[in-house]
Amino acid sequence: MDPNVCLSYYIRPLGRPVIEAFCGGTGAVLIERAGPVEGFAFAVDELSALLGSNIRRHLSPFVASSWCGTEWIGSSYSHALPGHADARQILA
């Protein structure tokens, strides 16, 4: 994997025992092309470097999405900021 690829992590969202990994731009394209097995391995390696090697035994892949290859998503997403729910019509 390209050493310039960087993931963002959401650890224990809403208190759940989950780690969500996010990537955008060129990195997202590279990870998608590599496939979910390689993507998960990359994330586990990066988390291990950040949190220590003991984290590996607590991690198991669950699900991956491929937004670049999903035609109706168009490889991006949008959302309305808090207080701007009226903008959802435009975003849709």
Explain this structure to me?
It is a single chain. The protein is α+β, with helices and mostly antiparallel strands. It has one domain. It has three helices and two strands, in the order E-E-H-H-H. The chain has a two-stranded antiparallel sheet with strand order 1-2. The longest helix has 16 residues. It is globular. It starts with 7 loop residues before the first strand and ends with a helix. 7% of the residues are buried.
Q: Could you list some keywords that capture this structure?
A:
single chain; alpha+beta; 92 residues; globular; 9% strand; two-stranded antiparallel sheet
Q: Helices and strands: which structural class?
A: alpha+beta
Our count of domains comes out at 1
Shape: globular
β-strand number: 2
What is the H/E string? EEHHH
Total number of helices: 3
Q: Averaging pLDDT over every residue, what do you get?
A: 84
Unreliable sequence segments:
none
Beta fraction? 5-15%
Radius of gyration: 15 Å
Q: What is the share of helical residues?
A: 25-40%
Cα(first) to Cα(last) distance is: 34 Å
The strands making up the biggest β-sheet line up spatially as 1-2
